[in-house]
Structures are given as structure tokens and as C-alpha cells.
Design a protein that fits this description.
single chain, Rossmann fold, 7 helices, 40% helix, globular
């Protein structure tokens, strides 16, 4: 292998991995949800509200990632009767706009989520906050060092009780290599990995069920673009 081929091969390995530099996690335990004897996913209707974020694109990418993970685990999406995911999202957004107490400039509170979830005839509501999601770059020798940073919180609300049987917060800092893809692509990859991790944890509290393949950043981007049309 010549030096050029070796460099390309090295770059490929760097670009396709996100080794964690720092990882923090807090939240409820899956056992807390399991103790409530939740039904199988295909018996649960779930509404997904937009992530709260200062960035409109990140907000909708986060929602797309949650929707894909719910479908991966076989949940029923609320509101029912929607023929497509974009139609479902439009109905959800309309319910938000119709709610007199909803403040689009403030993070959603559990009582708001429960109330809007009931309007959508959902048993559970999932929503979240992206406190931080960005990539910083530092020049170091031949390859600039890129680091992805995320701080994400996800909540699951039972609309019947208004309680939060499960929530999780992940703060992650991951090395993204050097001559990598764009910052937005790295952010999407880190966002997808983080939401997948949360759902893998949540799934351990549920009755045994079929689980599809891991959600990929490319799938998240495609669904985001479909919804945005």
C-alpha cells in the first residue's frame, strides 16, 4: 500500500467512528418504568413533540430521530389516522398551536406535554431538549482536531397521570477525527447515536418485542427532509 492509499484508509477509519472522550448520564432507571408493568409497544400510542432547541434544524432532526426509534420498536404513533409521517407531524404541530398555554419560546413542561398528548389521544408523550449540539475544530498538525459536543434530555410522560415514568439526560463529547464530513453531518451522527442509546436503555424496561435495525444518521436526514417538504 502506498503512502497516499494509507492516508486515505486512515482517514476512512477516522471519519466512520466517534470515540467518546467524555460521557455523562443521569435520569431514571429502566426498572422504574418496568415496575409499572408497561404494555407491549404495539399496544401503546405515542405522540412526539418537537425538541426544544435554539436551532430549528436540530429541533426537527431530534423529532425525526425519536419517530424512527419509536417505529423501530413497534410503537403506534399518535395521532392515529395519519397516512404519512409528515401528516402526523402536521397534526401534532396544529395541536400545539391550538393549545392556549403553549409557549413556543420556552421548553415544554410535563403538564403541557400531558395536556397536548391527551388532545392527540396518546397514552405516552415523548419530548426533549437539546441544550447543546455543536462541533468545535482545533488545528493540530496535518489533521485538524474536531470534537462533537451534545447535551440532550428526553422525557416520557404518561398522559393519564401526568407523571414522568422515564427520563434520561446524556452529555457526550466525542472525537470526530480530522478531515471529516461537515459539522452538520457530525452533529447529526452524534444526535442519532445519543437518541439510539436512550431508546436502547428504555427498551430494557418493556415487554419482549421485535426490535428493528439501529436508526442511522442517513435515515434521520431523509425523514427530516420528507417532513420539511
Amino acid at each position: 500500500m502506498n503512502r497516499t492509499s494509507l492516508l486515505i484508509a486512515t482517514l476512512f477509519v477516522v471519519l466512520t467512528s466517534l470515540p467518546a472522550l467524555a460521557f455523562e448520564r443521569e435520569g431514571s432507571l429502566p426498572a422504574d418504568l418496568a415496575a409499572l408493568n408497561p404494555p407491549p409497544p404495539n399496544d401503546v400510542s405515542v405522540a412526539v413533540l418537537p425538541f426544544w432547541s435554539r436551532d430549528d434544524t436540530q429541533r426537527e432532526l431530534g423529532r425525526a430521530c425519536i419517530l424512527l426509534n419509536l417505529m423501530r420498536h413497534g410503537f403506534r404513533l399518535a395521532p392515529s389516522g395519519s397516512q404519512t409521517v409528515p401528516a402526523l407531524v402536521r397534526k401534532t404541530d396544529q395541536a400545539l398551536r391550538n393549545d392556549p398555554h403553549w409557549d413556543p419560546l420556552a421548553p415544554i413542561q410535563p403538564e403541557d406535554a400531558a395536556r397536548i398528548g391527551k388532545a392527540l389521544e396518546a397514552k405516552w408523550v415523548v419530548y426533549g431538549e437539546i441544550g447543546e449540539l455543536h462541533v468545535k475544530s482545533e488545528k493540530r498538525g496535518l489533521l485538524p482536531k474536531k470534537t462533537g459536543i451534545i447535551d440532550l434530555r428526553l422525557h416520557l410522560i404518561d398522559t393519564a397521570t401526568g407523571k414522568t415514568p422515564y427520563w434520561s439526560r446524556i452529555k457526550d463529547t466525542a472525537s470526530c477525527g480530522g478531515w471529516s464530513s461537515s459539522g452538520s453531518a457530525i452533529e447529526r451522527r452524534l444526535l442519532t447515536r445519543t437518541v439510539n442509546t436512550i431508546f436502547d436503555d428504555l427498551a430494557t424496561a418493556l415487554p419482549q418485542h421485535y426490535v428493528g435495525a439501529q436508526v442511522t444518521p442517513e435515515e434521520v436526514q431523509r425523514l427530516y427532509e420528507t417532513i420539511a417538504q
